Amino acid sequence: QQQLGLHQAETARWDSPFDYQEQALWFVPKGLPEPSAPNYTEKVMELALPLVEASQGRAFLLFTSYRALHLAADWLDGRLDYPLLVQGSAPKTELLRRFTEQGNAVLLGTSSFWEGVDVRGDALSLVIIDKLPFASPGDPVLKARLDAMRKAGGNPFMEYQVPQAAIALKQGAGRLIRDVTDKGVLVLCDPRLLRKNYGHTFLDAMPDFARTRELDVAVDFLRGM
């Protein structure tokens, strides 16, 4: 509302039709390095592999950069027993068609797969997100907006960048549960979620999934589906 200038608008909120506590598990892993570490993507893939095996493919791996996506694709090549679909190798609609029809594929994508993608049923049971989705600071439109907020005495990081990233994260997480019969595991790998004091903004924005920090619990959930 603040960004739109609708300071006195009437608002309403409706409960979700989904039973998130029963349908979904949110896994926040332990022991990953900071996202700036040079081996971060490799460590994320090492964590992802047993989860993808437990889900028998049927996974979206969502990245905040093309560099991380290509590093992940190279690392996974030859390590998976499931079809690997990588953004850029075919049009988006074709990748989604293959993903749905094959039923056990692993799809790697960036921002265009974070929203507006609707895969229902057994084809998707695992969504892994590599980092908190902060917008690129190199975007000139974003830079101008942040500069204007700073000149007005605001805190652009906490007042704009964090809330926008929280919305993007919720959209990415929303790929998992699209129907009342869907079940699955969401993995957010970024340790800043729990280490930084702005992490509560992301936690508050997310659906009310059951949560765990134990890999074995997430693997068992997937195997029991």
Summarize the structure in words.
This protein is an alpha/beta fold and 225 residues long. The chain has helices at 20-23, 40-54, 66-76, 92-102, 140-151, 156-173, 192-195, 199-205, 215-223; strands at residues 24-27, 59-62, 84-86, 106-109, 126-129, 184-188, 210-212. A seven-stranded parallel sheet has the order 3-4-2-5-6-1-7, with helices on both faces. Helix 4 links the parallel strand 3 (84-86) and strand 4. Helix 2 (40-54) crosses helix 3 and helix 6 runs parallel beside helix 8 (199-205). The longest helix has 18 residues, at 156-173. The chain is globular. The protein starts with 19 loop residues before the first helix and ends with a helix. The mean pLDDT is 87. One of its GO terms (biological process) is DNA repair.
Query: Any idea of the CATH class?
Result: Alpha Beta
Question: Helical region count?
Answer: 9
Number of domains: 1
CATH A-level architecture: 3-Layer(aba) Sandwich
Neighbour order of strands in the largest sheet: 3-4-2-5-6-1-7
Assign the structural class, choosing from mainly alpha, mainly beta, alpha/beta, alpha+beta, or little secondary structure: alpha/beta
Chain-averaged pLDDT:
87
| SSE pattern, N- to C-terminal | HEHEHEHEEHHEHHEH
Low-confidence stretches: none
Helix content: 40-55%
Q: What is the terminal-to-terminal distance?
A: 40 Å
CATH topology heading: Rossmann fold
CATH homologous superfamily (4th level) name: P-loop containing nucleotide triphosphate hydrolases
Report Rg. Answer: 18 Å
Major β-sheet profile: 7 strands, parallel
Coarse morphology: globular
Please indicate the percent range of residues in DSSP E strands (runs of 2 or more).
5-15%
Protein name: ATP-dependent DNA helicase
Family: Belongs to the helicase family. DinG subfamily.
Domain ATP-dependent helicase C-terminal: 66-195
GO molecular function: ATP binding; DNA helicase activity; hydrolase activity, acting on acid anhydrides, in phosphorus-containing anhydrides; nucleic acid binding
